Amino acid sequence: MRDTIAGALTTAIKAQDKRRVSTLRLIMAAIQDRDILNRGSGKDPVTGDEISAILAKMIKQ
């Protein structure tokens, strides 16, 4: 799932779609924040299920 988001970000950058680029960068930043939090507590990097949970939380916001 992380690769899909990164690929969509690359495509949006090439298409110069500013709204999509900013949204995808925000999503990538949230995923990286969770990775850093997990690393600090000795857990593995974020999985696909956790990414889905992050996205659900972002939609609610």
Task: Estimate the strand proportion.
Answer: under 5%
Structural Rg: 12 Å
Which stretches of 5+ consecutive residues score pLDDT under 50?
Answer: none
**Major sheet attributes:** none
Give helix % range.
Answer: over 70%
Order of helices and strands: HHH
Q: Give the overall form.
A: elongated
Query: Termini separation (Å)?
Result: 21 Å
Q: What class, by secondary structure content?
A: mainly alpha
Number of strands: 0
Average pLDDT for all residues = 92
Number of helices: 3
Describe it for me?
The chain is mainly alpha-helical and 61 residues long. Helix content is 82%, strand content 0%. It has helices spanning 2-15, 18-40, 48-60. It starts with a helix and ends with a helix. The mean pLDDT is 92.
Considering the chains and any ligands shown, give keywords for the structure.
0% strand
Q: What does the secondary structure layout of this molecule look like, with pairings?
A:
Blueprint: H1 2-15, H2 18-40, H3 48-60
Give a brief description.
It is built from 3 helices and no strands. It has helices at residues 2-15, 18-40, 48-60.
